[in-house]
Amino acid sequence: MTEENLKIYELLEQRHGSAHCELEFSTPFELLIAVVLSAQCTDRRVNAVTKELFKVASTPRQFVEMPTERLESLIYSCGFYKNKARAIKELSASVLEMGEMPSTIEGLMQLRGVGRKTANVVYAVAYGGNAIAVDTHVFRVANRLGLVEAKTPEQTEQGLMQAFDEDKWSRLHHLLIFQGRYVCHSQKPDCAACNLKEHCKYYQKLTDQTTFVKRGDQ
Description:
mainly alpha
C-alpha cells in the first residue's frame, strides 16, 4: 500500500468518518433482500419499503410462500418490482435448498441471482468480512481519484484489493460510497468542497483543460 493511497484513505476517513451501510436490517437475510431492492433505487426508499415489508415477511420461507402479486405490491415503489420480486423469490428458495443462509462470498454467490457485488456487501456488512463491493459510486470515485484505471466493476475491485491492505477493504467501500453519494457526484461533482483535490486525477485533468482554454483565449 503506497503512501499516496494511505493519504487518500486518511482524507476520506476525515471527510466521511461516519460512513456506514445505510440500509436497515436485522439479519443477514434481511440485508440480502434490501441489497436486491436497492438496485437503481435510493437507500432511503428501500428503508421505507422494508420497514413495512419485513413486518409481513422476513424469512426465506415466508417470501417463498408469499403470493408474487402481494410481494410486487409491497416493493412496487422501489422500481423494477417484477424483476426484483422474481429475484427475491428465487434467492429465498435457494436459501431453503441450502438449509441455511450462507456466510461466505462463494456461498452467497451460489444463491440464484446473487452476483459478486451483492455477495460482497452481505459478507462485509452482515458478517464482518473483508470485501470491496463495487457499485456505481465506488467505480466512479476510484477511477476519478486514480486509485485504479479500470473499465469494469470487476477490474475495479481487483485493482482496489491490490492497492489497499485487506483490513481496509470493507471500510474503503463505505468511504468511497459516501464520497460518491455526497461529494463526487456523477454529473456535477462538488470539487470546491472536496478535500481530495490535490490527489485527484479527474480534478487535475479539469484544471489542465481550464488552463488550456484560458491560454487559448489570450
